[in-house]
Amino acid sequence: MTDESLLGRVAEKLSEPPSYAEPGQRGSILTVAAASFGSKPTTDDVTQPTGFDPEAAALFEAVVESAYLVAHADGEFDAAERTAFEQVVVTACQGAVAEGQVHALIEDLSDLLGEDGLDKRIEMVARSISKVDHQQEVLRVAALIAQVSGGVSDVERGVLTALQKAFGLDDAALGRALREAENAAGQ
């Protein structure tokens, strides 16, 4: 059973900038990129401006995928875990992304993981995120979502470490992400 208060704390932290962010930064990378992903046209014949930015949408997908890979690290991602994961992402996005969009994205990520395997998906996430501050934030988001399942397990930490190494970040980057997650869980 998932602790609803923990889900709420994690979702709140996911919507905030990290503690180490530049002063004045508003929102986390997840919420900022969600605004573009959520405005993605659902048909090809859209002629009016939608606010859709394909790069921001791809960043959102990569952030969610990294968290999905960590959540799926133990090889199990049952219906309860999936529901909690989707709920946290939707809540953190503050209405910018609909439940159906997150559900469809998780379906796609599940298919990709099944086809490519974990190592290839980590490589693809790392390849799609080149800015160091975005890479750091990806680690933070993934660590925060790992907290939902009762803390960051060894196998989840292993996936986080693989992401950190694929990004070329130092151990301190992962340490910062894990501290943020532990602080959110302990509040």
Characterize the structure shown.
With 187 residues, the protein is an all-alpha fold. It has one domain: Orthogonal Bundle (TerB-like). Helices cover 69% and strands 0% of the residues. The chain is built from nine helices and no strands. Helix 7 packs antiparallel against helix 8 (154-167). The radius of gyration is 15 Å and the shape is globular. The two termini are 19 Å apart.
Secondary structure: elements and pairs:
Elements: H1 4-15, H2 29-38, H3 54-71, H4 79-92, H5 99-116, H6 118-128, H7 132-147, H8 154-167, H9 171-186
Helix pairs in contact: 1-4, 1-7, 2-3, 3-5, 3-6, 3-7, 3-8, 4-5, 5-6, 6-8, 7-8, 7-9
What's the short version?
With 187 residues, the chain is mainly alpha-helical. The protein is built from nine helices and no strands. The protein has one domain (4-186): TerB-like.
Q: How large is the count of helical segments?
A: 9
Helix content: 55-70%
> Separation of termini?
19 Å
Kindly report the CATH topology. Answer: TerB-like
Q: Name the beta content range.
A: under 5%
SS class: mainly alpha
Which consecutive residue ranges, at least 5 long each, have pLDDT under 50? 45-49
User: CATH homologous superfamily - what is it?
Assistant: TerB-like
Largest sheet: none
